[in-house]
Amino acid sequence: AFHGKKDPGAVAAALPHLGHKDRFIRYAARIALEHQPVSQWPEKVLAMKDTQALITGVIALARRGNETARPAILKALKGIEPESLDEPLLLELLRAYSLVFIRLGKPDRETAQPIAARFDALYPAKTDSLNRELSNLLVYLNSPTVVAKTMALIEAESKQSLEDISELLSRNS
């Protein structure tokens, strides 16, 4: 009901659903929020204690805010411990950081280094999805270890592929 139009009740209606377990409801709440004046909701979003709600709200703010919001967003995201998140929520966090940087600008070196260090400790991860998102973010933030870690992943994958092909050929001989 709040998509595509301003409504005085939209912010109050949308905020409680930013952390909903159903991603479609979270999406609907985010879109409703994005259609409201940005002056009405950033502080409420950045004060959210629920990790899922905060991440969803940050995505809305990255999409509708401007570069002046970036320091407050990064401060709010700093309170999230990435190593404590399950994979889907960690992926959302990584995408939120990426969207903040794409839309609101690259952080300076002093801001980027601690963020890179937080995620560098998680890379490489157990899944391709996480490795893809982590490597993209770490490259963007100029992590000093991302190139060596990524090359090691590529080499390990190439070696595994060759072993798989050899095994397949030996079974078919």
The gist of it:
By secondary structure, the chain is mostly helical. The chain is 66% helix and 0% strand.
**Beta-sheet strand percentage?**
under 5%
- Secondary-structure class: mainly alpha
Name the shape in a single word.
elongated
Proportion of residues in helical segments:
55-70%
**Distance between the first and last residues' Cα:** 64 Å
Average pLDDT figure? 91
Main sheet makeup: none
Low-confidence stretches: none
How big is the Rg?
20 Å
Number of helices: 9
- Please trace the helix and strand order, writing H or E for each element: HHHHHHHHH
Report the count of strand segments. 0
Describe the structure.
- There is one protein chain.
- The model has no long low-confidence stretch (mean pLDDT 91).
- With 173 residues, the protein is mainly α.
- Helices cover 66% and strands 0% of the residues.
- It contains 9 helices and no strands.
- The longest helix is centred in the last third of the chain and has 26 residues.
- The protein is elongated and about 70 Å long.
Topology:
Layout (H helix, E strand, L loop, with lengths): L9 H5 L8 H12 L7 H5 L4 H14 L5 H9 L8 H18 L4 H12 L7 H13 L5 H26 L2
Any descriptors?
66% helix; mainly alpha; 173 residues; 9 helices
